[in-house]
Design a protein that fits this description.
7-stranded antiparallel sheet, alpha+beta, globular
Length: 170
């Protein structure tokens, strides 16, 4: 059974997935860097695929960028939903789509985090978007409600964004 079939049917993969070829990963990187309205570029690394509900294992091409709200936020990006929409828009414009295999990697959005995936041919990219408070920041009373930090009430210097795409061939 191939890994693609395993992902589509929900069974454990018989063979591990492989990272996108370097040229394909560079293409995804280019799509993001040209299609997103913020300063930091994406670093390209190779990692083990993080544990996932689909039970798929193997290596991935990881595209990663981290920055504060000062670097990442623009008039088009004021929320986690904005960032997700812009990332999805840039990738779908380049031919990436949601399908049954990609939906297996989606998770419900939690406060400050969203996870979704897109597919193209025999490849998947699992996209993680996380926004949180910069370590060491002391939020003022206006940013607090019921003992929890309201991320939207922080200044851009107090918010940190973490974007990662784990792309692999099935």
């Amino acid at each position: 059974m191939t890994a693609a079939l395993a992902v589509a049917t929900g069974r454990a993969a018989a063979e591990p997935v492989k990272p996108l070829d370097v040229a394909d990963c560079v293409d995804v990187r280019h799509v993001l860097e040209e299609g997103l309205p913020f300063v930091p570029g994406f670093r390209m690394l190779e990692f083990d695929l993080p544990k996932n509900a689909a039970g798929v294992e193997g290596k991935v091409c990881r595209l990663l960028t981290v920055g504060t709200g000062v670097h990442m936020e623009t008039p088009e990006i004021r929320s986690l939903d904005d960032m997700r929409s812009l990332m999805m828009g840039a990738l779908t414009a380049a031919g990436w789509v949601e399908n049954d295999a990609s939906k297996r990697f989606a998770e419900k959005t939690t406060t400050g985090r969203t996870l979704f995936a897109l597919a193209r041919k025999d490849a998947l990219c699992v996209i993680s978007v996380v926004v949180g408070m910069v370590e060491g920041v002391k939020p003022d009373a206006q940013a607090m409600r019921d003992g929890k930090v309201r991320l939207g009430a922080l200044t851009p210097l107090q918010r940190e964004w973490w974007l990662a795409l784990d792309c692999f061939r099935l």
